[in-house]
Amino acid sequence: MKVSNPLTSWKARHNTATDHNGTTQHIEKHEGYDDSPLPRLTWASFNMGILVSMGGFIFGYDTGQISGFLGMVDFLDRFGQRHADGTAYFSNVRAGLIVGLLSIGTLFGALIAAPIADKIGRKISIQIWCFVFSIGMVIQISSTHSWVQIMMGRWVAGLGVGALSLLVPMYQAETAPPHIRGALISAYQLMITFGIFLAAVFNYAAERHQAGKKASWMITMGLSFVVAAILGFGIIFFPDTPRYNYRLGKTEKAKQTMSHVYGVPENHWSVHHELEEIRIKLEAESEKGSSFHEWYSMFKAPKMFYRIALGMLLQMFQQLTGANYFFYYGVTVFKGTGINNSFVTQMILNGINFGVTFYGLYIVEHYGRRKSLMAGSAWMFICFMIFASVGHFSLDRATPTNTPKSSKAMIIFACFFIFGFATTWGPMIWTICGELYPSRYRAKGMALSTASNWFWNFMLAFFTPFITGDIDFRYGYVFAACNIVAGIGIYFFVIEGQGRTLEEIDTMYLMGVKPWQSSKWEVPPLELMDEKTRRDIEATNPERKVKVAAPPDAHVSPSNGSHHDASDKELESAPLH
Ligand code: BGC
């Protein structure tokens, strides 16, 4: 099996340019600049990757802990309601609100974080949101008997989680050298699943050793502070992103940061090239109208309505795969199957989710998005059909211990399901949303699709207890049906992005390439594109306007006749061989 080396492909692209005939040429030197190869990884970028990924960990850890709390004796005793005989229980409304309010908080956090970060900076934003998150934890941990306090605490913590879920990838994308950006985003995804897994491990250990005591849920909850503190204090030692500093006019600082993180001298070609990109994009931004106008024009821009709707639907279907049914309510679900320690089951499911995400990160580049997602949908459909059928028809739901084989079968198919999710729809939907929008509208498009993820996340968290109360494990059929619809949707609407530059993907959407033909489609050189497509490309990618119209006075090499200065400007639109 062949694994593509991101550094090689990046270097290949950065050393090529298209000449007048549309032939790709290799450019060896950029005169006046240091052209030495970029180090693969520097300590600075490694440390940044680890530290900033803590944001992903917080996201996952908070998602993962609640499932266990709902099954803990002390948590139930303090925050549940009472039956006439004095036994404690959670009503559907209460369970749904406690679980779901975090998602409502994250929805808001994700929507407001970006404009605030534009005003005050990425670094200070990360610190502030870590603080907000910690306040949310204090509200929860200090609650003795008020479930409303727990719910509101989850809402406040959610604001922090949602904001960090947007800021962390933004910080990484704006600071990391291009060839490790993909890997860093993957590290972020891994940290989410690692957080979910560790929450289950701590829940298990705490319930085992502290059952019936407040400490059973407080230990897991309290450990969130440690991570928030590491991120909040640790970021002090890191500079703000080059893009943000450049925007404030601190160009020297931006250059220093890049040279430090990239591990090259300040006059390195890649530093110069990235700074140029930043300058051009900022110039284009300053020509934009009011922010209201930008939002309005986004929906009018070529193929943008389609792509916004697609991103939001993909995130909706990611939630409707049913994964969070297990992550949020797993302990309760497995209690219902008569498993004696549902905490162990939860730990196994979350462990699988974490472990196989590594494999998911590999297959996304190896088999492509479309094939993997369609296969994932079919797989998850089968798993849910079996899970639901066994749960409804074969399991003795009143006394599950009478049907131990059915319980086991359900756990096995839940594990199979998680395997399918974590290798396909879990990580890949984030990848697709990251490459779906043109540069001008990328941040807004991603904010909308992320908001859709959290909205549906809330809907499921809130309504699941009601639905399972009414239709028991037949709920699985609903997810099975959604998985089939989602798989068909991928076939008809999603363009294959494997091995393509962001600009190529954009061009394919603009040219209306049929998604099912997209993986084999050859991108024509810009010169051969029709006038309308070129205009559409310019409207949604301000920096490419300059590329298309690369000045004729650009440095021309006598030997090969290609544009040296324009090389990197043109190459993004050049066909890749
Ligand atoms: C989803 C979350 C889910 C997590 C599980 C993410 O991609 O958006 O809702 O809890 O995967 O690993």
UniProtKB/TrEMBL annotation:
Note the topology in the membrane.
Multi-pass membrane protein
Segments of this protein annotated with the region Disordered: 1-33, 532-577
The keyword Nucleotide-binding appears for this protein = no
UniProt domain Major facilitator superfamily (MFS) profile: residue ranges: 48-498
- Give the top-rank taxon of the lineage listed in the UniProt record for this protein: Eukaryota
* Any one GO cellular component localisation term in the record: membrane
Is the keyword Transport assigned to this protein? yes
Q: Which residues cross the membrane?
A: 41-61, 95-116, 128-148, 154-171, 183-205, 217-238, 308-331, 343-364, 376-395, 410-433, 445-463, 475-494
Question: Which NCBIfam families does the record match to this protein?
Answer: SP (TIGR00879)
Family from the record: Belongs to the major facilitator superfamily. Sugar transporter (TC 2.A.1.1) family.
Q: Know the name of this protein?
A: MFS monosaccharide transporter-like protein
Q: Which organism is it from?
A: Mytilinidion resinicola
